[in-house]
Design brief:
Elements (H helix, E strand, L loop, with lengths): L22 E6 L3 E7 L10 E4 L6 H12 L7 E6 L3 E2 L2 E2 L15 H9 L3 E5 H9 L5 E7 L3 E7 L2 E2 L9 E3 L2 E2 H5 L1 H7 L1 H19 L3 E5 L14 E3 L4 H4 L12
Length: about 250
């Protein structure tokens, strides 16, 4: 098929995709960069590839790492990227878990479009993971337990404004990232860390009155308490699979 034209840096240009379009989905994490090819239903068309996240990333290093990551994968029509921070119109606003302030203000979306020659959309990684997890009914909340504490909020399947809950004060003068992130888990041990996660969930319930909560991320499998009926653990593969949903509105019928 003819390759669609790259969107502009505001992501406003409409494109038309065939029903068999292939999505390159990238999940940028604090410890690893992951990618896979998907169809528009989120089904994996390739094995998921992974490399370590370079330390103290600067824009050029991040771009080169992503190019190296996706090199083994085949052809694709569009690209989705989940980024661990606040992203607006493809521009990085915060990157707290990547060990650098030099990414702030970097238009990752536009830079990747130039590098890969395909339309790109970039959004928060928990938001992207949420698209693959939710059912599309009522108030649905997604949290990710990984390097930090990610979150996403949906109403009837539509993504709400991104709430940077990870940097809201949680306890003892520290935020959610500091108290529930991976460094804290390693420092305080599994039992105390689980108690903190339980407290975090109670806070999220009060804040959003969610109908359903989904828990993902690399540390979700380390929970050892009984979950309420309206809470479930979801596959970490959703961090990649959610990338398909960013393009489903653009299928030409």
């Amino acid at each position: 098929m003819t390759a669609p034209q790259p969107i502009n840096d505001a992501g406003a240009q409409e494109i038309a995709l065939a029903e068999d379009a292939r999505v390159l989905a990238i999940d940028i994490g604090g410890s690893g960069l992951k990618a896979a090819l998907l169809d528009l239903d989120g089904n994996m068309l390739s094995e998921r590839v992974r490399i370590e996240t370079p330390k103290a990333l600067v824009p050029d290093a991040l771009l080169q790492a992503l190019v190296n990551l996706v090199e083994p994968l085949g052809g694709y029509d569009v690209v989705s990227v989940g980024f661990p921070g606040v992203v607006r119109k493809g521009v990085i606003i915060t990157a707290p878990n990547l060990g650098t302030k030099q990414l702030k203000g970097f238009n990752l979306q536009l830079a990747l479009e130039k590098q890969l020659g395909r339309p790109v959309r970039v959004l928060n990684d928990a938001d992207m993971q949420g698209f693959a997890a939710i059912k599309g009914e009522g108030v649905e909340m997604v949290i990710t337990l990984g390097t930090g504490f990610g979150s996403a909020l949906f109403l009837d399947g539509e993504l709400g404004p991104h709430l940077e809950i990870s940097h809201i004060p949680f306890r003892q003068g520290e935020d959610y990232d500091q108290q529930v992130g991976n460094l804290a888990r390693k420092k305080i041990g599994k039992k105390r860390w689980n108690r903190r996660v339980q407290r975090a969930i109670k806070n999220i319930r009060i804040l959003t009155n969610f109908d359903r909560l989904y828990i993902g991320g690399g540390n979700a499998d380390k929970l050892d308490f009984k979950l309420d009926p309206d809470i479930e653990i979801v596959s970490n593969e959703n961090g990649v699979r959610g990338g398909a949903w960013l393009w489903r509105k653009h299928v030409a019928r």
